[in-house]
């Protein structure tokens, strides 16, 4: 790489021109030039010392230049003790203590502490995104954003927690994750006092106190934003952007506590409640709380008795669509869950799970009184009646009671004079 000279980045002022500048203009010039030097040095440019020294006309600038070679740090912050090799970086640093922001955007009046940050901000108004990903074509306003994005493709997570080994794509995510270990919760709700590890969790929590509605109702039905890959149309451009992730496979929303990635911010939001334990949706009738609004809606049907999902073949109604789907298999005979050891099929995954215990010998339900174990909870409940003496099943002919329904059925045979083998055959046929 060719050496960069002072003339390449320096704006020359004559003595007369310099004297015409106001003090604030002179300070701005010095700070912008200094930052230009630092930025060029950071990306590997070499400085020609003899040329730079020729331009260092004042002893003050010459001293600063020499300090950059010696490594001495002579300017120190009197507030935190941090020291700097040059005066201008010290001035920038002091603004972190004072909150001073002297560089103002002429379009929206937002102020910044550094001119470089102002330059990046201006891109918001221009819409310019000059840094493009060479793998998916997505463009970004800042090179740092592009570098972070590329980790989606490479899978790189360079920021690792030294306590648990969990790795993250961003330093900010690592810092937030560390609060799991320290217990620090610096973001506090000013309405209820509840504290959170991250600002995003606090922001979501605050919605439980307000009546804000984040989703607009559109009456026209018009969907002008169309996906150029599958043709699906959307009401909002933001919905189209989320949809496109289906085609790219991109999952840009990362959980800062466990590192799991998600395609949509709403999915990340629901997932984060696993870590926070937050359940912001409360039933006004019984006070039970839920992590998702859909779970609350289903729960409310317990109180209302509403069963909106009806079977079109028999008219049986259900509170959940999943319950209706399982019910339909009675009519279709569908058994989609198959045992990979014996091939037996079942209508529900829970039935398959119980069946698999025949092969594995697993009996997870143990009686705390005698230690006997069972493969099904129902079998354990029936067994417990031996200890309690409870017999809830009563014969309606003689009044005799039994601990299980099957025992009652066998007993009834004595009243009908049916023989057990014939009764068993009838049961198998039915």
TrEMBL record:
Q: Which UniProt keywords apply?
A: Metal-binding, Nucleus, Repeat, Zinc, Zinc-finger
Spell out the subcellular localization from the entry.
Answer: Nucleus
PROSITE patterns found in the cross-reference section: KRAB, ZINC_FINGER_C2H2_1, ZINC_FINGER_C2H2_2
| Pfam families on file | KRAB, zf-C2H2, zf-H2C2_2
SUPFAM superfamilies xref list: beta-beta-alpha zinc fingers, KRAB domain (Kruppel-associated box)
Q: Where is the KRAB domain?
A: 4-115
Chain ranges of the C2H2-type domain: 75-102, 103-130, 131-158, 159-186, 187-224, 225-252, 253-280, 281-308, 309-336, 337-364, 365-392, 393-420
Query: Compositional bias (Basic residues) spans?
Result: 61-71
InterPro entries referenced in this protein's UniProt entry, alphabetically: KRAB, KRAB_dom_sf, Znf_C2H2_sf, Znf_C2H2_type
**Region annotation Disordered: where it falls in the sequence:** 56-77
Q: What is this protein called?
A: Zinc finger protein 998
């Amino acid at each position: 790489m060719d050496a960069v000279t002072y003339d390449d980045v320096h704006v020359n002022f004559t003595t007369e021109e310099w004297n015409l500048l106001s003090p604030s203009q002179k300070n701005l010039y010095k700070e912008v030039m200094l930052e230009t030097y630092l930025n060029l040095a950071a990306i590997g440019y070499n400085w020609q010392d003899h040329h730079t020294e020729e331009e260092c006309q004042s002893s003050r600038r010459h001293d600063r230049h020499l300090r950059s070679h010696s490594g001495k740090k002579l300017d120190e912050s009197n507030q935190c003790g941090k020291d700097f090799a040059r005066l201008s970086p010290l001035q920038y640093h002091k603004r972190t203590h004072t909150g001073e922001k002297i560089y103002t955007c002429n379009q929206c009046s937002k102020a910044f502490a550094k001119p470089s940050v102002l330059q990046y901000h201006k891109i918001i108004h221009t819409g310019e995104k000059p840094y493009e990903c060479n793998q998916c074509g997505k463009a970004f306003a800042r090179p740092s954003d592009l570098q972070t994005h590329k980790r989606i493709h490479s899978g790189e997570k360079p920021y690792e927690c030294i306590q648990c080994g969990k790795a993250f794509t961003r330093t900010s995510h690592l810092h937030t994750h560390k609060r799991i270990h320290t217990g620090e919760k610096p973001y506090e709700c000013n309405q209820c006092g509840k504290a959170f590890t991250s600002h995003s969790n606090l922001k979501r929590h605050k919605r439980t106190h307000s009546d804000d509605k984040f989703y607009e109702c559109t009456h026209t039905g018009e969907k002008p934003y169309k996906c150029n890959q599958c043709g699906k149309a959307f009401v909002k451009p933001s919905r189209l952007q989320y949809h496109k992730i289906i085609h790219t496979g991109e999952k840009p929303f990362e959980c800062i506590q466990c590192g799991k990635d998600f395609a949509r911010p709403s999915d990340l939001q629901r997932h984060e409640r696993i870590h926070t334990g937050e359940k912001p949706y409360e039933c006004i009738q019984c006070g039970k709380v839920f992590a998702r609004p859909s779970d609350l809606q289903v729960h409310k049907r317990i109180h209302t008795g509403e069963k909106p999902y009806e079977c079109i073949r028999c008219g049986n109604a259900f509170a959940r669509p999943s319950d209706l789907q399982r019910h339909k298999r009675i009519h279709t005979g569908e058994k989609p869950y198959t045992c990979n050891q014996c091939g037996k099929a079942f209508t529900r995954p829970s039935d398959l799970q119980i069946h698999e215990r025949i092969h594995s010998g697993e009996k997870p339900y143990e009686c705390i009184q005698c230690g006997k174990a069972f493969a099904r909870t129902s079998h354990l409940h029936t067994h417990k009646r031996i200890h309690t003496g409870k017999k809830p099943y009563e014969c309606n002919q003689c009044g005799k009671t039994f601990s299980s329904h099957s025992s009652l059925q066998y007993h009834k045979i004595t009243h009908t004079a049916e023989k057990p083998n014939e009764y068993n055959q009838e049961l198998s046929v039915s």
